[in-house]
Amino acid sequence: MGSYVYQLKDERGRAIYGLADAINKAELKRRIRHDNFYFIAAHPFNEQKILRKKVNQEALLVFTHRLASLIDSGIPIMTAMHILWRQTEDKNLQLVISHMRNRLEQGSKISEALDDFPAVFPSLYRAMVGIAEKTGGLAVVLRQLVAHLEY
């Protein structure tokens, strides 16, 4: 089984990128055909290269703010991650979110998925989310992180 970076187009023609494991491109194309996306391309990738991706501070701030709002609204984490994946404009962040979604689908905690990206999520960010998972109040902690990232 190989790992692929894939590109889709949504109904408005906007490019969306993601990560997935598949036996080959044909199987990948069959698996990800959903939600009015049009398959454009898929390329094998080096997972270690993806895990070292960086995201600018503004994109991280917007991601954190939107995730806090979605969680605070009672939206399940998997649905929230799908919404964020579709909404983000930053290709690197789309790949990060896609990887995180895959990890969550496999049963990982969100803090474990964040730990895969130390170049994106600072250690304080990852630690606070980990504590929030154990104690509850993820939305509250995310709002605190938004305030921290704004300064």
| Terminal CA distance | 43 Å
Overall mean confidence score, pLDDT: 91
Mass-distribution shape: globular
What would you report as the Rg, rounded to the nearest angstrom? Answer: 15 Å
Helix content: 55-70%
Helix count, DSSP H or I runs of 4 or more residues: 8
Query: Main sheet, how many strands, which sense, barrel?
Result: 3 strands, antiparallel
Beta strand count? 3
Note the beta-strand portion. Answer: 15-25%
**Which regions have little confidence, pLDDT < 50, spanning 5+ residues?**
none
Class of secondary structure makeup: alpha+beta
Explain the overall architecture.
The structure is a single chain. The protein is an alpha+beta fold and 151 residues long. Helix content is 57%, strand content 15%. It is built from eight helices and three strands. A three-stranded antiparallel beta sheet has the order 2-1-3.
SSE layout:
Layout: E1 2-9, E2 15-22, H1 25-31, E3 38-44, H2 47-51, H3 57-72, H4 77-87, H5 91-105, H6 110-115, H7 123-135, H8 138-150
Antiparallel strand pairs: 1-2, 1-3
Helix pairs in contact: 3-4, 3-8, 4-5, 7-8
Short structural description:
This protein is 57% helix and 15% strand.
Keywords:
151 residues; three-stranded antiparallel β-sheet; 57% helix
